[in-house]
Structure formats: structure tokens, C-alpha cells
Amino acid sequence: MADLTKMLKAAREAVSRASSVCREVQRELESVQSLTKDDRSPVTVADFASQAVVAATLSELLGHRITLIGEEDADELRQQVANGNTTIIDAVVKSLASVWPDATRDIVLDAIDLGGSESDPDAGSTHGFWTLDPIDGTKGFLRRGQYAVSLAWVENGSPILGVLGCPNLSSDFQRPFDDPDPHGVMYVAMAGDGVVELPADQPNAHGVAVERLEPAEGEPIRMCESVESGHTSHDDSERILEKLGEPAEPARLDSQAKYAVVARGQADLYLRLPKKAKDGSGYYVEKIWDHAAGAIVAKEAGVAVTDVFGHELDFSHGRRLEQNRGVVAAPVKLHGAAIGVIEHLGIGR
From CA 90, how far away is CA 109, in angstroms rounded? Predict the structure, then answer.
């Protein structure tokens, strides 16, 4: 029987350390870009460093080898090292110095690979697994906007624990999303036990309970959506909002921080509407690590989270949400109205 309390404590520490590392890399964007001659290299460094420190921290604090389904593996880094190019791995090791001072190239590469296994979680198994997005919202990271470190424990197709680190998000609703908070916030959720908000750099803080209420009747509805339309359709979002009531200025930010913004009442509705895959093969299928932590944080605050057909998100089909299309997150009554509008408009069919 898993010790969920111990696991959640380890997850809090892991996400806090990763948030600290990501914040440090983001502060040094220009120097990393200059060193590597690549504008996207800082997010590459931060991705690898975040995954390494999360995997290592979970293994250390839980005392056993973990099962972690993550976005990265170390194959490319190992190939670079074999070819005599150590620029990226050395930048990764350097970025970890403040939270993992005895890290070395080999230790870090092994830690990254803990989350980079090609094997999928067994859909028929009752055993759980961790899933991680080391940096969710790469464009937000590069523009010094919002991004998230998203870690969840999944059992029987559903997230049971979730820790969502938002290193640039402020607890102050008046602070603009493009004005990074020096401490950030972290959301910690356990199924049936609610969700709390605490500073991202204080993983052992008590935290403040987050509980979402329904929007007041007649109030404008504030949509929470991506800054860019890469994974959703802003046109369809506007059509839905027109049917639901008077729209407010949308809250546009990157990453699973959108789940937290809806959960805490700073926005009312998060839509990730289906878009055709770039290769024309059908609709884009969401990755599990892009939603697991955010979904349980929102649900434990009182937000309904489903796909566009009103089906629960099913995390039991490997690395992707194969049985779902799109995501709708909103307080229960508004969520029901949104699903009705989506069905009426035929979106996702």
C-alpha cells in the first residue's frame, strides 16, 4: 500500500527544487543563449535539469527506484557527450549546483533517464506511476512569462496526487501574468483531501486551502486560455463564450498554470479545444503530463474537468489521453453549460 502522505511530501520537495532551478536558468537566459548560440537552449537546459532533480529527489526521499513517465530522455545528451560536445550537459549540471551540489554529468544523465523510459505505463495494471512535465509552457518560459513544473501520481487511470509549481505566478491577483513573482506559488492536491496554495520556494509551508465557488449570476465570464493558439482554437472559444454570457477580458497565459488560475477564481473557464493534428491524421491527442497535475489541482478545488464531450480524463492509455478530445475546466454549473454549448456547436465532432 502506497504511503501517499510520504509521497506527497517528496513531491512537494521535488517540485520546489525544480522550480528553483528553472527560475535560475530563466534569470540567465541571455548568457545560456550566448554560450550555446541557440535561442531555445535555455528551455532545453531547464527541461533536463528539472527532470533530473525531480527524479533524483523522489528516489532519494522515497528510498527506491521510481517509475516516472516524463517528457525527456538523455539519449541526445549522451550522444553529444560521446561526440565531445559537453556544452548543454555542463550547463545542466551548473544550473543544479544550488539544490544538488554533488551532481555530476553521469549522475544527472542517469536521473534524466529515470523519466525517459520508452515503456508506457501498463493500462491494465493497478500499480501507479509518476508523470512529469519538467517545464510546461516553453514559450512562456522563454518570454519570461508563465510556465509550470507539473508532477502527479496516477493510479487506475486517475491522478491521485498532484503538485503544480508555478515559479512566476503570484498569489496577488492584481499582479500581471507577465510580471514574474520572485517566489512563485505551488499547488498541492490529494484526491479527496482538497488543495492548498503555498510559496513555491517553501515546500514545507502549511499552505492556504483553495476552494472554487460558482461565478455570481450575471457576472462577465473570464476565459483562461493560451497566449498563442497552438493547441486550441481562439475562434471557437469566442463562439462558446458568446453563448454562455457576457465575456470579460480573457486571462491569457501559458502552461498548466491555467488550471490553477481557474481553481483559485482568477478566471472562470479554461478551454483547450480540439485542433486538427499538423499531419492531417485527425485531432491532436493530449499528453498525460500536460494535464495530470493541473486536473487534480482544479478538481480538488471544486472545478469540473472533462473533455469536450463531458467524459472524465482517462490516464490509463499510456502516454496520451487516447480516449479524450480537448479539455474543459470550470465550476460545475458553468462547466455543464459550456459542454452543452460545445455540443450544440458541434465542436470536436
Answer: 11
E strands of 26-89, at which residues? 68-70
Query: In b/e form, how buried is each residue of 122-134, taking b as 16+ CB within 10 angstroms?
Result: eeeeeebbbbbbb
How far apart are alpha carbons 335 and 328 in whole angstroms?
7
Does residue 122 register a pLDDT over 60? no
State the DSSP code for 142.
H
What grid cell was written down for 143?
518570454
Q: What is the pLDDT of residues 159-185, one digit of tens each?
A: 999 999 999 999 999 999 999 999 999
Measured CA to CA, the distance from residue 230 to residue 208 in angstroms comes to 33
Query: Catalytic residue numbers?
Result: 47, 138
For residue 198 the three cell numbers come to: 503555498
Using the 8-state DSSP alphabet, how is residue 247 labeled? B
CA nearest to 221, candidates 344, 307, 338: 338
Q: What is the distance in angstroms between the CA of the first residue and the CA of the last residue of the chain?
A: 41
